[in-house]
Amino acid sequence: MTELPDIESLQLLVLVGEHRSLTTAAEHVGTTQPAASKRISALERRFGVRLLDRSHTGSTLTSDGRLVCSWAERVIEDVNLLVEGVNALRRERTAQLSLAASLTVAEHLLPTWIGDLRRQVADLHVGLQVLNSTRVCELVRSGEIDLGFIESPRRLRSLRSQIVARDRLVLVVAPGHRWARRRRPVGAAELATTPLISRESGSGTRDTVEQALLATGLTPVEPLLELGSTTAVRSSVATGAGPALLSELVVASDLAAGNLREVATTGIDLHRTLRAVWHTGAAPSGAAAELLALASRAGSSPRTASARDAKSERDRS
């Protein structure tokens, strides 16, 4: 039976194939050309196959070497997959608090809440998955996570929930868009018939828009673009691809910098609540209960409420 090769030698062989140079391959792995040549020679003896054509102009893979190199690439890929899987298992085993959250909550609210919690609970390890609201609810129902955070207005089957923050969707366009200097607000009917840049189905933001339009008796047209992340939606809007409805939390910095422009809307309620969710059969306990309490206090603090009331007053004026 042929002795198994070491991964480092296989990686060196693959690098020779990529760069068509033993010297360059040696530099990439931090060794000298003579040392790299010895490793390849040892690999050739182990396999009983000549892998390199060596000449005064350099070293290139033989036809057998190219075939072995293609097999080596798959071995290295599988080894990397093994290492990543083991690391994921280790993280899962060591996580004391397992969370999943929609993007808006994960990026703009959870970092502060988790930071506050870590100051209260020494050596706390948090495992966080960032998913759309539908997927977060699925993980909570299956018991795979301790606590979830969502934006979706849909009815929560087999889940209990608690409001942790309030948010508003704003209509945004690029500075050069025809609506950027518009003085008349966009009404619900016009909004429903305008193809928007949108998140994927199952996203809390998209659910909020659809439910808000349905509440006015309108059905939205198909999206202009359907994208899998809020960052992609923001970028597409900024390039002038079209308008979008996005969380005020998400676009605040873009509006302040002038990268996006807010367009006023009328005849539709785009306010929403952000919620923590957990399974009906298992009340949050330990670190999950403490995080829920922190989030709830932050969402109902006088400072937050005052800012929210002031914003609502500006919207009405």
UniProtKB/TrEMBL annotation:
InterPro entries: LysR_HTH_N, LysR_subst-bd, WH-like_DNA-bd_sf, WH_DNA-bd_sf
Amino acid composition bias (Basic and acidic residues), ranges on this chain: 306-317
Domain HTH lysR-type: 5-62
Pfam families: HTH_1, LysR_substrate
Region annotation Disordered: where it falls in the sequence: 296-317
Record's keyword terms, sorted: DNA-binding, Transcription, Transcription regulation
Family: Belongs to the LysR transcriptional regulatory family.
Protein name: LysR family transcriptional regulator
Source species: Prauserella alba
